[in-house]
Amino acid sequence: MTATEHTPTGRASPGASGLRLGVDVGGTFTDLLLLDEKNGRTYMAKVPSTPQDSSIGVLNGIEKICRIANIDPHDITEVMHGTTVATNTVLTSSGALVGLVTTKGYRDILQIARSYVPGGLGGWVIWNKRPPLAPLEYTIEADERLDSKGAVLVPLDEDAIRRDLTALLSSGIEALTIALFNSYTNDAHERRIAEIAQEIAPHIPVSTSAAVMPEMYEYERTETTVVNSYVRPVVSKYVSNLQGEIQRRMGSDVNLRILRSDGGLSSAQGAMDQPVNLLMSGPAGGVAGALWIAKQAKIKNLLTFDMGGTSTDVALIQNSVARTRRETRVGDVTVRAPSIDVRTVGAGGGSIAYIPELTKALRVGPQSAGAVPGPAAYKKGGELPTVTDANVVLGYLPSDAKLGGDMEISRELAAKAVGTIADALSISIEDAAEGIVRIVNENMVGALRLVSVEQGYDPRDFALIGFGGAGPLHANALARIVKSWPAVIPPGPGVLCAYGDATTRLRNEASQTYVTLVRNTSDEEISTRLKELEASAARELTEEGVADADQAVMYQIDIRYKGQGMKLTVDISPDDFAAEGLKGVARRFDAEHEQLFTFALDSEHELVGLRAVVQGAEKSFINQETERAGPDASEARVQPTRLYADGAWREGYIYNRGKLKPGNKVAGPAIVVEMDSTTVILPDHIGLIDEVGNILIWPADHKNVR
After folding, report:
1. d(CA 488, CA 470)
2. Torsion on CA atoms 325, 331, 335, 338, rounded to nearest 10
3. Which residues of the chain have pLDDT under 70?
């Protein structure tokens, strides 16, 4: 017997007016993008984030963008929101007090965990193990047991569990997790315990492991469900309050959808019920936006580089598909929830530069000035030197450029802040600023290596797309280090995450654990099971208004070598599976295994799980540019400027991006300014404007710009 997982998404809005709003909350700014589907128009807005309650920044942004677009908020029918609430709850240890119910004999499951210590060989010396999110003193055992096929070996002792639950639920816990051994094959006991718990304390939310993650591996399943309970009250309160306020301001028929870690959409209720799927919600929006831009530019392989005020997120896209993984890691918490493979480093525009007393060597981050007080240049009271201040000193961020369209920046305050570093190192302010920028660039190169070199990919085979508020400032320099050409700067790079939120496809999946050797099953058997899962997932999307013709299907098969403890996931289309069968799946697994670990084994293959992923149709809103121009970009010049690069001041120009046309070439050094971001083109490089408005930065001697 197997348990099947359904991951619902938001319900489509019939008769929608065509106005969709994407909202991305970052550490420093909240970005908004309003899409007028009927008329093909877009409107952008940027407001400061409000870390104490991010919904305030969201609502402020909605007011601002409605003013810009001159529309009534009631005209917006859909709000798609990428949020970091779940992520921050885990990182700041501010979640709920969780009680846990396990099978008798498994009370210590979270304490035992896996025999893994982060770091090198001596990592255990300095590792401070984080306490489990469900404390041992709030863990009880249920007298019950199932076998691996789901048959009952020991019936549930309801009297005993009712007595223990009564004590646990009155002990002050705020959420309850039920994770029983082998429940992924039969969740009858979990459902019964949940019913008893709801009878005793209906106000305490209950999460069962078979509903959250119906897959084998009892530790991962328990940990994932505990994290779901840990963030559930916080996320539920945030989403519920935001939904209520949005409906009050925009009408009761507006749909709020939350972006999941895997790039799909969840309804507001789905987000409140299973918030563990939101841990990488924020970064997923940027990858979704980058993927759409890459398709328009006909670039299939690229590294995404999303630099904001607090952190930088990177990911890899190969053959127009973002790499995903079946687990999500936040800090030292790892859960078995699908996510786009995004790696994050504490390097952003707000990252603070400092000189430790011990080493006297310049360091940058991960500490950040955030939105409050922010970099010194923002004139909000910040005094510590940041990456943004260094960019201002170098002329990369002209003091007469405005952030968010109306925020002034001060070179004088930036120079004063960076001067503290220069004085400590006895060097010029410009050299100190360039040192800060070079160090933060190297920090971000380390993250790019995690998704490329360490996964078996050569970054020279990929383009690099830079976005986020600070990404275009650093994209050219990073591409020069890792040799990823071209460096792509999309239209509206500062709000690309919000664009990804607004254009994300509806997504649903159904999965089941299925453990068997490949030789003990057949193509027909697996095909039947996959088609059943496909029908289950497709049924949900059909009910949400997605026509059958607009649904795209992908199969995922978890597979490993016989005797292995862990597995890899192989993606294969229904057509390819029909043509290649399990032999094709095994070949793909061997190739993936060899790429990741440099070898493949001559061993039997074992299936572990099956999954069908169904997505709705893609939507595009940016009108393709039709007016081509020659290489001369002088009409877009605003004024001469100076940039400090490679140890010397260089003469260049500031360009207005809104006036650049396809075919234009911008020779570096140059600064390209727009409402939401600023792009730096370094000396000996050229920016080429492509057909859809991207800036493609190449070395000046590259064959593509000669």
Report:
1. 14
2. -30
3. 1-18, 27-28, 40, 118-120, 123-124, 371, 400-407, 544, 618-626
* Residue 54: φ, ψ to 5°: -65, -20
pLDDT tens, position by position, 173-222: 999 999 999 999 899 999 999 999 999 999 999 999 998 888 888 999 99
Q: Give the DSSP H or E segment for 61.
A: helix 54-69
Which amino acid appears at position 633 of this protein? Answer: A
Q: How far is Cα 449 from Cα 297, in angstroms, rounded to an integer?
A: 24
Query: Taking a C-beta distance cutoff of 8 angstroms, is the pair 568, 589 a contact?
Result: yes
* Alpha-carbon span 106 to 237, nearest angstrom: 32
Query: Are 94 and 234 a contacting pair, CB within 8 Å?
Result: yes
Taking alpha carbons only, the member of 554, 553, 556 closest to residue 588 is 556
Query: Do 470 and 308 meet the contact criterion of CB atoms below 8 Å apart?
Result: yes
User: Length of the chain in residues, anyone?
Assistant: 706
Place of tokens 């017997």: 1
Which DSSP string do the residues of 358-371 spell out, in sequence order?
A: TT---EEEEEE-TT
649-676 pLDDT per residue, tens:
999 999 999 899 999 999 989 999 987 7
What type of residue is 321? V
The pLDDT value recorded for residue 694 is: 92
What is each CA distance from 87 to 175, 224, 260, 334, in whole angstroms?
Answer: 18, 14, 12, 12
β strands within 104-202, DSSP E: 139-142, 145-146, 152-154, 175-178
| Residue 510: predicted pLDDT | 83
Q: How far apart are CA 490 and CA 690, in angstroms?
A: 10
Q: Which two tokens stand for residue 323?
A: 């790499």
For Cα atoms 512, 514, 515, give the angle at the middle one, nearest 5 degrees: 150
Predicted local distance difference test score (pLDDT) of residue 161: 96
Site of tokens 């595009």: 620
- As given in the structure block, the two tokens for residue 344 are 């994050």
CA-based radius of gyration for the chain:
26
* One-letter amino acid of 176: L
Query: Alpha-carbon distance 277 to 287, whole Å?
Result: 16
Strands lying side by side in the sheet with 670-673:
637-645, 648-656, 670-673, 678-681
Nearest to 76 by CA among 66, 86, 84, 85: 66
Spatial contact of 284 and 337, defined as CB atoms under 8 Å apart? no
Burial class (CB in 10 A: 0-12, 13-18, 19+), 9: buried
Per-residue pLDDT, 18: 65
Beta bridge partners of 689: 695
Residue 492: closest CA among 311, 376, 621: 621
606-617, pLDDT tens digit by residue? 999 999 988 877
Report yes or no: 23 and 259 within 8 Å, Cβ to Cβ.
no
- Burial environment of residue 526 by CB neighbours within 10 A (0 to 12, 13 to 18, 19 or more): buried
The 8-class DSSP code of residue 389 comes to H
- Between CA 357 and CA 342 the distance in angstroms is 34
Give the separation between CA 385 and CA 364, rounded to whole angstroms. 10
Sign of the alpha-carbon dihedral angle for 284, 285, 290, 295 = positive
Per-residue tokens: 174: 């705020």
- Long-range pairs of 236-242 with CB within 8 A, sequence gap ≥ 24: 236/205, 236/272, 236/275, 238/54, 238/55, 238/83, 238/85, 239/85, 239/268, 239/271, 239/272, 240/268, 240/272, 241/55, 242/55, 242/58, 242/59, 242/81
Distance CA(647)–CA(650), nearest Å, equals 10
Measured from the Cβ of residue 109, the count of other Cβ atoms closer than 10 Å reads 22
Greatest CA separation found in the chain? 82
* Tokens matching residue 392: 């201002």
Q: Give the pLDDT score at 531.
A: 93
| Residue 235: how many other CB atoms lie within 10 Å | 25
Q: In what order do the strands lie in the sheet with 98-103?
A: 139-142, 98-103, 175-178, 206-208
